[in-house]
Amino acid sequence: MPKTLHNKHLLTNELLYLRYGSIEPSAGTPALLTIRTIATLMKQNPTTLRYLEKLHFRPPSQNRLSLQPPKLNVRPSRKKGSAATPISITEEELEYITSRETLRAQASYPLTWRCVMFHRRFHDRFISPASYGAILK
User: What span, in angstroms and rounded, lies between the C-alpha atoms of 57 and 69?
Assistant: First the structure.
């Protein structure tokens, strides 16, 4: 049964002992075993063991508390408008959705495309296909 990652120090000590023959190796100590071999012996993921090894040789000020890799490239939400629901819709928006001209022009469009057209008309508002369909009923 694989060891849990809750005891990070125990895993790190075992890894370092198997890899370098010492619990406190220096940065220039040659490796005795590969990470893949140690991962097989310890029944752990090689990526986790590489991460623990890097944590050991990193200066203490840069160590993180989590074993999960940091989340990079997290984009903020690009939506900067408000959602239009059947309750919060304005008169102008309701007129646009229910007008004969709009209904004729968008007769062959699915609801998702109609929602896109709504957003193109009202740039700061978004509407879901379910809300759009509820308004049309």
Answer: 16
pLDDT in tens, 61-117: 655 566 666 666 656 666 666 777 777 888 999 999 999 999 999 999 999 999 999
**Dist. CA 3–CA 51, nearest whole Å:** 16
Please, what sign has the CA dihedral across residues 48, 54, 57, 58? Answer: negative
Say if 131 falls within a structural domain.
yes
Same domain, 86 and 130: yes
Q: Is 94 a domain residue?
A: yes
Distance, CA of 92 to CA of 72 (rounded, Å): 42
pTM for the full model?
Answer: 0.41
Domain with 23, as residue range(s), is 8-62
- 65 phi and psi angles, rounded to 5 deg: -90, -20
- For 25-69, the pLDDT digits (tens) are 887 888 899 999 999 998 989 998 888 888 888 776 655 566 666
Q: Determine contact, residues 32/21, Cβ cutoff 8 Å.
A: yes
Count of the separate structural domains present in the chain: 2
Which residues lie across from 127 on neighbouring strands? 84
Query: Is 13 part of any domain?
Result: yes
Are residues 20 and 55 part of one domain? yes
